[in-house]
Amino acid sequence: MSQGVPVPQHEQRRISDEQFHDATLIWNYHQMGHVRRPCSAAIGLGSHDLGVATTAAEMYHAGLFPAVVFSGGNSPTTRARFPRGEAVHYREHALSLGVPDDAILVEPKATNTGQNITFSRELLTEAGIVVESLLLISKPYMERRSYATCRKLWPEVEVVCASEPQELDGYIKSIGDEKLVVDMLVGDLQRVIEYPKLGFAVEQDVPGDVHDAYERLLRAGFDSRLISP
């Protein structure tokens, strides 16, 4: 189960079946469906979700990469949970799961996905690790955005996306707030749509039914994680 940040019970809001259906369309779209395979290195993208580090440890033990960069400083949503920084806490969790220290690189400054990729690339180069293929490990609903960002910033590397295997209802239960999770799904889809226009990511095709679901959820007020125009 994902180890996301719990939210106080009073903040929960019951969503309708139709809204859950729309959220599921977006949840499924965010996941790339890549087959896990051995890669030159991995990057664990910092967030509130310690499941990223758990998944990285599992994949390391499966022999899918020789070294992982945990990347991330802090954000308003992670400062209380990870006071020493996302990457530092990820490292500590991976060590507790048996990943050797010499297989872990820590990038503690990134505050967005572009910096995650750029700073991790620099760190891997400094470590003398030649990267031809890369496992990007993220929250389940961040796979597509991290893929599009990496393809823009590191186009010569082959990207394989991975996350903790979960269905939407299980992820909602782990977070504890349906409204917040749907807000995050909508916010990430907005970024998938808008970031290519800003030069932050490559464009991704958004199927019509996914875009329609996005518009319905926006009209219903699932908008707390949107970026400003």
Description:
Strand 4 (133-138), helix 5 and strand 5 form a beta-alpha-beta unit. Mean pLDDT is 92; it is low at 1-12. 45% of the residues lie in helices and 11% in strands. It has helices at residues 17-30, 51-61, 86-96, 113-126, 143-153, 168-175, 178-198, 208-219, and strands spanning 41-45, 68-71, 104-107, 133-138, 158-163. The chain is an alpha/beta fold and 229 residues long.
Could you give a short description of this structure?
This protein has 229 residues and is of the alpha/beta class. The chain contains eight helices and five strands, in the order αβαβαβαβαβααα.
Helix proportion: 40-55%
Report, as a whole number of angstroms, the end-to-end distance: 35 Å
The global form is globular
Extended strand count: 5
Query: Proportion of β residues?
Result: 5-15%
Average per-residue pLDDT, rounded, comes to: 92
Secondary structural class: alpha/beta
| Poorly predicted runs | 1-12
Largest sheet properties? 5 strands, parallel
Query: Topology as H/E string?
Result: HEHEHEHEHEHHH
How many helices? 8
Strand order of the largest sheet: 3-2-1-4-5
Cα-atom radius of gyration: 17 Å
